[in-house]
Amino acid sequence: MLAPSYRKWPESLWRDVTLSPVSKPTLLSVNEALAGRLGFNATWLASTEGVAMLAGCHMPAGVLPGAQAYAGHQFGQFVPSLGDGRAMLLGTVQDCEGTSFDVQLKGAGRTVFSRQGDGRAAIGPVLREYLLSEAMHAIGVKTTRALAAVATGEDVLRERALPGAILTRVSRSYLRVGSFQYAACRGDVTALRAMVLFAATKLYADRDTVAGDENPDIDALRVSLFDAVADAQADLIAHWMSLGFIHGVMNTDNMSIAGETIDYGPFAFLDSYVPDKVFSGIDVRGRYGFNRQADVARWNLARFAESLLFSEDDDAIAPMRDIIDDFTSRFQRRYRGLMAQKLGLPGGNTEDNAVIDGCLNILTAESMDYTRFFRTLPDRVADVGGEIALRNPRAYKDWAEKWAARVTHRPGGFKMAVDIMSQHNPAVIPRNHQVEKVIVAAEGGDLKPFHQLFDAVTHPYLQNAIFEAPPTREEEVHTTWCGT
């Protein structure tokens, strides 16, 4: 069921994990749709034996948990040894299409990389990631996914005692930029070559022209891999920003080689549109603010490139530098394409770009609710009254008339534009205040709000009067935390 495929990698990249059983594990939720896709029996996962595995208490025969080693730049400072301090990799499964996924427990106890931490997780961060990752998947953003969550029956100590929980999540791969940095700073070329070969041929085989070669040229493969990862990150960050999503901690150890959103910590969605918004309570200098995410991704890619070099005069330097220089253009093309879809525009021309820029200026000046603005725009068209009082009705009216003129004269006209907008503007996102309500209820033992919000955010394009409403001023969440 779970193949220990990672153990074929160089031993420097992983460590064995000793299980730390908890006292009274109970199931909080099983993602039945994902379980079925991965070949798991949801009934078995909910059984005593299944919950024992999900809680890290006891493993089925052949399942040998391990923790991955990695390094990383954290808020710009390099830390040479980080690793899975509260996560353990159980193994690999294949879905119904033959695609492999790694299964990991998060919050299951200490590993050799835990340092001073307890390796545990509280129920709040577990349910936040469960909700958010599945919401992102439903919208169409590449992400790790939540397979299950269990309560441990034990408290964890943070600012106060909180109910403990463990998340089971899956990913195409848990390789990060920090994985390559870990090997590179130790001069471990064997490990670097193994990771390059795996990532290029398994994660990006459709792009790699030498994937079928039994003895591929690793030197050439590095550039092919780097180009693929840069493309994936341009797509990912563009998708984040088109949705108003802030990751919160874009350290290099949180940047997935698979191009997935990973390690949900102090993330948040914009309510009012504030381009330089920072939610994370630990990001005191705003390094990972909303409008800096593409620049940070480019910076992280430069660190990735450095870790792929085998010598000072490496032939890969020039082509990888060109890819880094082109990254901002790649991101802008993806981002503007997504914003054009949100506005029902054909995109790709100067006139449409001017409408997009004008839209962002209006959102900034008026501090409008980001998600609701796009969702309700076709109904309001050039209505300057709308749902809120505007600071500058004339500026909004001028922009709205330009937008209406562009979409009316596009192929298919206004109706086609509205159809496109309805497919690219979710009605429901995991709004910060709704997630906080779920956490408070779950800490008190009530999971009904969690299941209600989960159902809403996994059907993001369906109208839902309860969950699509913006927060009141009293409900607004201004700061988020990672919960470690």
UniProtKB/TrEMBL annotation:
Keyword Transport appears in the UniProt entry: no
Magnesium listed as a keyword: yes
UniProt-listed InterPro entries: SelO
Binding site for Mg(2+): N254, D263
EC number in record: 2.7.7.-, 2.7.7.108
Names of required cofactors: Mg(2+); Mn(2+)
A GO term, aspect molecular function: nucleotidyltransferase activity
Catalytic site: D253 (proton acceptor)
Catalyses which reaction(s): L-seryl-[protein] + ATP = 3-O-(5'-adenylyl)-L-seryl-[protein] + diphosphate; L-histidyl-[protein] + UTP = N(tele)-(5'-uridylyl)-L-histidyl-[protein] + diphosphate; L-tyrosyl-[protein] + UTP = O-(5'-uridylyl)-L-tyrosyl-[protein] + diphosphate; L-seryl-[protein] + UTP = O-(5'-uridylyl)-L-seryl-[protein] + diphosphate
Pfam families assigned: SelO
UniProt entry keywords in alphabetical sequence: ATP-binding, Magnesium, Manganese, Metal-binding, Nucleotide-binding, Nucleotidyltransferase, Transferase
List of residues binding ATP: G83, G85, R86, K106, D118, G119, R169, R176, D263
Function: Nucleotidyltransferase involved in the post-translational modification of proteins. It can catalyze the addition of adenosine monophosphate (AMP) or uridine monophosphate (UMP) to a protein, resulting in modifications known as AMPylation and UMPylation.
Family note: Belongs to the SELO family.
Protein known as: Protein nucleotidyltransferase YdiU
UniProt source species: Sorlinia euscelidii
